[in-house]
Amino acid sequence: MFSYPVKMERDTNNTYLVTFPDIPEAISVGDDEDEALLNALDALESAIEIYFDEKREVPLPSKAKKGQSVVKLPALVVSKVLLANEMIRQEIRKSELARRLDVHMPQVDRLLDPRHSSKLDAIEAAFAKLGKQLDVSIS
């Protein structure tokens, strides 16, 4: 599971501002700490979409300091981040992945949409076409 450390501070409006040291594009606010962290997940997923659109690797989370709050990405989103990063490393375009999977482009677009509830077997198939294997564990 990816747990991104956050920096949380009270701003001038007496609300909480949340930023991500690893992903500076993700910024969120909330009336209290809980709301700010809840909104932060949405901000993080939106920032990940930016990375995907710009074909940039999504930075992996750094280790949180003791007592530092974190925002955990859902496992499905983690698998999509890992898939997108691997495609970038291997210089595989979406059209090439679609060809390898023998699917239409919209299906690959959904695989790389953090907000779409893709099936895990489709993501596993995509990794296989990249010569990789998705491993799942419980901690």
CATH topology (fold) name of the largest domain: Double Stranded RNA Binding Domain
CATH architecture of the largest domain: 2-Layer Sandwich
Number of strands: 5
Helix content estimate:
40-55%
Pick out the low-confidence regions: none
Number of domains: 2
Q: Strand sequence of the main sheet, in spatial order?
A: 2-3-4
- Give the SSE string: EEEEHEHHHH
Largest sheet: 3 strands, antiparallel
Structure, described:
- InterPro entries: HicB-like, TTHA1013/TTHA0281-like.
- Pfam families: HicB_lk_antitox.
- It comes from Caballeronia sordidicola (Burkholderia sordidicola).
- This is HicB-like antitoxin of toxin-antitoxin system domain-containing protein.
- This protein is α+β, with helices and mostly antiparallel strands and 139 residues long.
- It folds into 2 domains: 3-72, Double Stranded RNA Binding Domain, CATH 3.30.160; 75-129.
- Helices cover 45% and strands 13% of the residues.
- It has helices at 33-53, 75-90, 94-101, 105-111, 120-129, and strands spanning 3-5, 7-10, 16-19, 27-30, 70-72.
- The strands form 2 sheets. The chain has a 3-stranded antiparallel sheet, with helices on one face.
In short:
It comes from Caballeronia sordidicola. The chain is of the alpha+beta class and 139 residues long. It has helices at 33-53, 75-90, 94-101, 105-111, 120-129, and strands at residues 3-5, 7-10, 16-19, 27-30, 70-72.
Topology:
Layout: E1 3-5, E2 7-10, E3 16-19, E4 27-30, H1 33-53, E5 70-72, H2 75-90, H3 94-101, H4 105-111, H5 120-129
Antiparallel strand pairs: 1-5, 2-3, 3-4
Helix pairs in contact: 2-5, 3-4
